[in-house]
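Researcher: Next entry in the queue.
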Amino acid sequence: MVTRVAQVLVLSHTKPFLCRIWEGADTAMRVALHIIRDGNGSTIEPWNVDQDSITQHDRGHASLREYLANGGQNEREIACSIRPLLESFLRVAYPEHFPPGTMLGPFRGLCEQRVNTAHQILNAQDIQELRDIVEYANRFHHDTNPAWETAVVNAAELTGFVTRALALAKRQ
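Model: Structure for this entry, 172 residues:
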């Protein structure tokens, strides 16, 4: 139907839906606008769909890569971002085993139960690597360490665990 019309307008409150349409549209023929509330009215402005499509996981991954490449960022912020990065990665890589609301501990336990079975999720080496990285990251996580805001960040240790976290995500 779209090929037989001169123009199609799609309005939605659902950003993922709009982003999928954007990705499938002819780049020479598409324009994205969004409505911005301002006071008692609204304004229609250009919408940078590509920038708005970047997820928190994408930003976290980029932040860790940037830290490895250039250092100098807030080391505590980087340390705090390791666990959420792994969680978001595992939710995408293993959605049937690690759905939203599932904690890393039970997921790891399920992985351990299934090692060397037909339903293996992670191998034993990757489970141990996940355990080691999460144990480090838990020092900087509010749910697992009441003193997370004052835990000392060692730059060399942080660099090693950032490297390991990014490598684990690549192996899967």
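Model: The mean pLDDT is 88.
Researcher: Noted, moving on.
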